[in-house]
Amino acid sequence: MGWVPAPQQGWVAPHIASEFPGLGVAWVEVDSKPGRSPDPVRRRLRDLSDRTYGSQAIRLRERPIPWAYRVFFRQIGLDPDRTRTPVEQLTLDRLHDGGFRSNGLPRDALDIAIVETGVALRAFDAERVEGRLCIRDSAPGESLSGAPGDLARGTLVIADERRPLGLLFGPTAAGAAVERASRRVAVAAVQVKGVPQIAVEEALWLAGSTLEAA
Amino acid sequence: MTTLSGMPSLLRQNDLSGPGVAVDEREARLQLRGQIARLEAELAGLFAEAFGHTEVPHRVEAPSAGPRVLDLGQLEAVRDDLATRAAEARQALVERWRVEDGNRELVERMLAAPQDYKWVRVSRQDLGLHGCGHWHSRPRLGPIGMLMGWWRVKISSGCPLSGRLAAVDREDQARQAGRLA
User: Fold this and answer.
1) What is the DSSP string of A33-57?
2) Where are the domains of chain B?
3) Chain CA centroid to CA A74, Å
4) For the segment A20-31, what is each residue's pLDDT rounded down to a tens digit?
5) Among the partner residues B36, B58, B68, nearest to A71 by beta-carbon distance
6) How far apart are CA A21 and CA A193, in angstroms?
7) Quick one: closest CA in A to B76, which residue?
8) Rounded to whole angstroms, what are the CA distances from B53 to B48, B90, B181?
9) What ipTM was assigned to the predicted interfaces of this complex?
10) pLDDT above 60: residue A206
11) Number of separate domains in chain A
12) Which helix (H) or strand (E) holds B110?
């Protein structure tokens, strides 16, 4: 496992934080080149596949961290049975495909950390992130680059200090996603009420160290 | 008349935020979110408990197209839908348990008097049990038992082995190939 810097804490717009106590965003930046996952990472995915069963998928929504994300999805107007929480989506894919498929880096590193901890993670091209990450609602006339039209007013987004990088639990803006030319990756964790800080730190460490070591 | 001088201003007000009346909607929204959390936990428990026995309604449509801070009305709608689904799920589960209890009693009666339940077959799924197998009331020694009234409940020995299933597949393929030839 490689060395991973301490997570940086992002901020949440005060009026959003007062509505959703416990909501937060934290991230780590690591040097990593996208591409095929090395053998140890692929082996780890296979081991995870062997440890994940259908019965666990059924009971998943009763476990504290996946349940916390389901609740948060309900509270922000998403249907968690349609827009799946990250860990539920991965578990369903595992059952459907018969195993966790390797999708290369950084996706595999994130998948391992999400399945192990249940924490929602996503990756951005760190060189295109300006300043600290935050969770806020969209301003009038603001849009997600690469998506048609303006964002509906009040849409919750993950943003840097300049623009929205993606919808909260939704698509990533064009130009903010990790691409073949990316050389540094920002792994961000969205924390909601009920998800302990230690789980967030473990998820970031796990994803970051897998990327560093690859 | 002087006592009614304040009335026109009161009548003009459309909301409750009148003199001395402050409505804290944020507090109401926080309470509704707490209720949603509890109902989601209850529904998750019912969903997991019912899995393998029966299908319970658990879907609640999203009130918005994207992630946002829901207003009071939308949160109430989510809360009410979740409460309705939880009640429906509980009802479905209770009905299913009733059916399974009935089937369990039927098996006991079949075992006690197989001749009264000729050809009746109850599977393990009907009793809410996992795995393959069934209780089947059938005559001993085939037609002779039928004529003599020798009935018994036969309990099947479980799921077919994978080797046996593969052999069935091979037989099917051979039959298909023969038909095509």
Assistant:
1) --BSPPHHHHHHHHHHHHH--HHHH
2) 22-112, 114-181
3) 18
4) 999 999 999 999
5) B36
6) 6
7) A75
8) 10, 13, 45
9) 0.87
10) yes
11) 1
12) helix B72-112
CA distances to A172, A174, B82, B154 from A145, in Å: 9, 5, 35, 68
A150 lies in some domain: yes
- In this structure, is residue A3 part of a structural domain? no
Mean pLDDT for chain A overall: 91
pLDDT of residue A120: 96
Q: Report yes or no: A193 and A199 within 8 Å, Cβ to Cβ.
A: no
- The residue behind tokens 């009802």 is B91
Q: What digits encode the pLDDT tens for the residues B66-116?
A: 899 998 999 999 999 999 999 999 999 999 999 999 999 999 999 998 888
Query: Is the bond preceding B57 in cis, omega lying within 30 degrees of 0?
Result: no
Asked if residue A100 lies in contact with residue A93, where contact means CB atoms within 8 angstroms, the answer is yes
In a domain, residue A2? The reply is no
**B114-169 pLDDT, tens per residue?**
888 889 999 888 888 877 888 999 998 888 888 888 898 988 877 777 777 777 77
Q: What was the pLDDT predicted at A57?
A: 85
Say which residues have a Cβ less than 8 Å from residue A178's Cβ, sequence separation at least 6: A34, A106, A123, A124, A125, A185
Residues A76 and B67: their CA atoms lie apart, in Å, by 5
Which residues in chain A are contacts of B41 at CB distance < 8 A?
A: 62, 67, 71
Q: For A162, which DSSP code?
A: S
Does the distance separating the beta carbons of B45 and A58 come in below 8 Å? no
In a domain, A56, yes or no: yes
Domain that holds residue A77: 8-213
Residue A58: which CATH number?
3.50.40.10
d(CA A28, CA A41): 19
A74 near B CB under 8 A: yes
Q: How far apart are CA A16 and CA A21, in angstroms?
A: 8
Nearest C-alpha neighbor of A90 from the set A67, A51, A118, A62: A118
Contact residues, chain A, for B68 at CB < 8 Å: 76-77, 137, 152, 154-156
pLDDT of A153-192, one tens digit each?
889 999 999 999 999 998 999 889 998 888 999 999 999 9
